Structures are given as structure tokens and as C-alpha cells.
Amino acid sequence: MQNLKYKLRLKINKKLVKPTLLVPQCHNCPRVLKQEISSDINKLFPTVTKNLTGTFLKVSAKPGLALNAVFGKDPQGKITLAGGFCNEIFLILQKKFEFNFSVQFQDGFGKRLPNGTFSGIVGSIQRGEADIAIDIGLSAQRTEVIEYLPPVIFTTVRFFTKMPAHVPRWKLILEPFTASLWLAIFLCLGVISVSYFCFIISEKKIRNIPLQSMSWGTMLRNSGGFIFKPILEQDITDSMWDHIQILRLLATIWFFVSIVFATAYRAKLTTLRSIPLPEIVPETFKELAESEYKPTLHFVGGMIYASIEGSSNPVFKTIGKKLGLEKVLQTCLVEALQGGSACIAMDSITVYEGVKNFSNVDGNAVLRMSKDAFFSIFGGAALKKHSVLSQDFSRSIRRLFDMGIVKRLQDIELTRARQRGRLWAKMKAREEKWRESNNDSPNALSIVDIYAVLIVISIYWLISVGTFSAEFLWVKRRWEFILRISGLIYCDHKTSSNQDRKFKTLSNKYTHSLNVTEKLKFLNYLSHI
């Protein structure tokens, strides 16, 4: 060894973690010539490291999920990675292990065929046409032919609807008429109607009037008019009203009771000023199945559709009967924004598309996500079964996950999408009304609405008081009749004032044309007042 003129020495650069071959080094020469040559250490010492310098990997992918993986083409027509946090993780692995790659598209993720093979991405790896898949969901069937790396995709299946619209103000004004308020109103009406029937029957029995003279249908029809009689008609000499003063009292009491109802209505209405009522939209899958909304599934692969179709849950059986399919997520969300439709999709991808393409000028999404989820989906990269790259790739991905880099990459993608969506929404706000900021949340009643209701209630209260006064103080177009009654009364007491003589003259003039029988009937009527 000492007689060798040239020696080869391998040196590892600790900073670059890159092998360097120093050749030649002449010990007997006066000058030392050093030349650094990049070496494939995996070929020299395959058991020392897993450096993939010079290795070419074929990547299989399916375009469509922008949050996970975005692809483009260079001027030569070669498929390139153009975004998505899954692509970013793959590029980190590529820089670490220094391999080359090419991307090829597949139609679908992977479905088992009748002959036992798989289609799509899984099939390309199974047939040896690809070495790795970037973005693919995990399923038990696929693990038979491919090996998954640690998952970096964690998502659930939910449905999305439009944000609750404004409830019109005329609906808000009618909203306080709750079931309890209506129940109290109808109970009061029922008590008055029953009292009306009872007093009618008792009055007829006292006066020996046949009950057949008034049918129950007539009495029922009169009960409605009886309640509003004090307002619509103040003629106290009219028909049977002249003899049933207790019922007249009940009628006026009804209007005072209605003031209590109006007060309860006003109290409920005032709460709508601070607690607005949004439009009712389904929030759970059970509500979606029971509603008139049409469910539309974003068809990414067959896994979600097969889960819904094969579910034994009656809720999802109902949803499956009216389920529609849509391959383009943007189209599915547009139908949801138009109303009457719910888009079933993976939440992470839908949120990304929502803030990018369906946000308002403030950068907020205009879609509402359901409270519950259908099932969870895990996914990430996958290799062929028993691949020698599995252990090292898995170790690197776990480190990225533990360091929070995976979550950070997701947040960066969402932030970029929100910024792009906000800028685009400002340009589209004039064309699409749902992008305006004032449509973010439902409005409450204004103070003007409250004052308007108070004015209506005050007018109603004045009508009730006026009705009571008309019944018991004998006002409103009946002064002549009061003078007639007063004339008879003063005539009986033989007073001699000028006022009394006027009353007497007026009463004599009124009763002069009556015969004896009519006068007795008239005096009998006065005795019942």
C-alpha cells in the first residue's frame, strides 16, 4: 500500500450530506491535485444510505383535487407539479433523496374489476406502470396490491348548502304568533262561543221561545259576528242583543283580553330585534333526508358513492333514492348556492374551493357546512407492495408530520386560496348578488318596525276602549234614544223643569203613535235594560 502512487479517498461533506470523491491525490508529486466528482454512493455502498441519485420514479396521479395536488405543463408538454400540499410534500422527498420523476395521469383512483385487478392509479402501480401515487384515499381492498405511506390527508364527508337568507320583515312580524299564543286566542274564542250558546239557550227557556226557532248553524255563524259586534254595530235595540246584556259584556271583555294578547305579541316581537331569525336550512343528514333539498354527490371516486348505496341506515337509504352525481365540484356548489340543493363532498377540498371561488368581498365563504359527517377519509402517497423505498419515505413523512410542516402547508394553500378568492369576488360582486357583504347574515327588525307595531297595537287598544264606552255609556249615534228614555223616566217622576218638559214632549211624541200593546212591550224592554 505504501508503494501505491495514487490513492482514492472518499470524503463525506457533513454540511451538504453529499458524497465527494477526491481523485487523484499524488503523494510523491510536489503538488497535490484535488478534483471533486459527484458520486452515487448508493452504487458504491448500497447498505450505507438510500440516496436515489440517478433513480427515475414514475408518478401516477389523477387531477381534480386542487388542495391536494395541482398539475401543469411546461413548454415541451411535460406534466409538472404546480401546487397542492401533497405535491409540496412529494417535492420535499425528491430534494431529500435526489431522484428524478415523471408524472402520468390516470382516469380514476382505483376500482376492483371483475378479474381481480384494479383500474386507475392503483391499477397502474399493480401492473408496474408506476412506482408511486401522490394523492390517493385509503381503503382495505387497495392494501392488497399497494402499500400506503403515513397518511397526510384527513377529511370527512359532509354536505354544503347556501347560507341562510334573510327572513322577510313581514314574516318576522308574523313570527311571534307562536303555537302558545294561537292556543290562548282560540281558547278565549271557545269560552266566549260556549258562553254565547249557553246564554242563548237559557234566554229562550226563560222567555218560552222554542229552541227550534234558531238552528245551531245560525248560532255558530252568529258567534263570529258576536265577537266583533261591538265594533261593527252599535245598535243596542237590534234583535236579541237588546236582551242579553251579559253577552255584550263578554264581547267587550274579549277586546280587553286581546290587549293582553297584543302585549304578549309585542314582547315576543321585541326579542327579534336582538335575535334575528334566519331561513331554516338542513344542518344534519337526517334533516337533509326529511327536507325537500336535493342531495348531489361530488363524484371523486366510487368509494363515497358505494358507501352511501350500501348503507343500511334508513337516513342514507332515503338520501340514496334521490341522490344525484356531479364530477365537477364547482358545478355542485353553484347548484347549492342557487337554493334547493345540497352538495355532498369532502370538507377540506370543499372549503378550499369555497374560499377560492365562492367567497364574498370580505374573503368569507357563503356556503354552510353540515354539523355531522358521513365518514372519515384518510389518504396520501402509496407505493407498490413491499417497495424498498417504503421505510425511508415513511420515516421522512412522519418527521414532516411531527414537525407541523404538513399542517403548515395546508394552511398556506388555504390562505392563498382565500386571497385569490377575495380579489376575484371584488370583480364579480356586481354580477353576483350573493357576493355582497350585506348578505352575510340575516337582518333583525329595526326600531322603525317596532314603533309601527306599537302604533297598530295602540290603535287597537283605543278601539277596544271605545267599544267598551259605546256599550256601557251609551254613546256613538244614540243620543236621541237616550233622550227618549230620559223623557219617560222624568215623566214618571213628575218633574217640572224646562229640561224635563222637553224630555216629556219628546217622549210623548215618540209613544203617541204606539198602541197600548206596543207601549207595554216598549216598557217591558226598558225593564230589562
From TrEMBL:
Pfam families: Lig_chan-Glu_bd. InterPro entries: Glu/Gly-bd, Insect_Ionotropic_Sensory_Rcpt. It comes from the Eukaryota. Keywords: Cell membrane, Glycoprotein, Ion channel, Ion transport, Ligand-gated ion channel, Membrane, Receptor, Transmembrane, Transmembrane helix, Transport. GO terms for molecular function: ligand-gated monoatomic ion channel activity. Residues 80-159 form the Ionotropic glutamate receptor L-glutamate and glycine-binding domain. The chain crosses the membrane at residues 181-201, 246-265, 450-475. It is found in: Cell membrane. It is a multi-pass membrane protein. GO terms for cellular component: plasma membrane. Its main location: membrane. PANTHER family: IONOTROPIC RECEPTOR 20A-RELATED, IONOTROPIC RECEPTOR 60A. This is Ionotropic glutamate receptor L-glutamate and glycine-binding domain-containing protein. It comes from Allacma fusca.
